[in-house]
Design a protein that fits this description.
about 220 residues; Rossmann fold; Alpha-Beta Plaits; five-stranded antiparallel beta sheet
Length: about 220
């Protein structure tokens, strides 16, 4: 894919380098030409100096042929304006804006913008490590609102079914591993001793899950 990253701070530079490593054609935009030093000598993509939401700057970066754009500057307003220009003016198929203030996420989602908030993710991850260390969380989704938890089924779940432990809209068993084979269980799947499960849970329902697992 051809991807434009607007903002070459630490996060933007890391994103650009990872995308290049994964084989994508990457262009990076930043108003400060010194910022591009973060990319290092091994960066083979294009660098463009200018304001990220300036149409001429974006055209120079190749936005008319871009498959995706990530707005990763240090300002929420700049990121949102850049994302809206990319999506509404240039019809870029995939656009994401980084937000520092997670309280704004709902507003921008109503505008149809996909956002990521490192602040919200960081807070939720810190709570998980400090308060809920018994649960292994390999994946978080969205802005950290949903976690996928992996664990061996507790003894009091054995002989019960998925239907007995799912809580619609809050807690759902999404995968089950038994004898080195992983399946997507049905509501009627019955847990056996030694089963490992992956459970999608709302962060706001994590305490409820711990109570169900008898961790509290």
């Amino acid at each position: 894919m051809k991807v434009i990253v607007v903002g070459c701070g630490r996060a933007g530079a890391e994103l650009a380098l990872q995308l290049q490593q994964d084989g994508h054609d990457v262009a990076v935009v930043d108003k400060d030409p010194q910022a591009f030093y973060r990319l290092g000598e091994g960066f083979k993509g294009k660098t463009v100096t200018g304001i990220g939401f300036d149409r001429d700057v974006l055209i120079h970066a190749g936005i008319e042929r871009a498959d995706a754009l990530a707005a990763f500057t240090a300002g929420d307003n700049t990121n949102v304006i850049t994302a809206r220009v990319a999506r509404n003016v240039f019809r870029v198929p995939k656009v994401v804006a980084r937000l520092y203030d997670p309280r704004r996420a709902e507003i921008y989602q109503r505008l149809g913008l996909q956002t990521v908030s490192s602040t919200a993710w960081g807070v939720n991850r810190a709570i998980q490590l400090l308060i809920h260390p018994d649960l292994h969380v390999p994946v978080t989704l969205g802005n950290g609102d949903v976690e996928v938890v992996e664990l061996e089924v507790p003894s009091h779940w054995v002989s019960r079914s998925v239907h007995n432990v799912n809580v619609p809209g809050e807690i759902n068993v999404v995968a089950l591993t038994r004898s080195d084979k992983t399946i997507i269980p049905t509501l009627g799947t019955v847990f056996q001793e030694g089963d490992r499960v992956a459970i999608a849970v709302l962060v706001s329902s994590r305490v409820r899950l711990e109570e169900m697992l008898a961790l509290r």
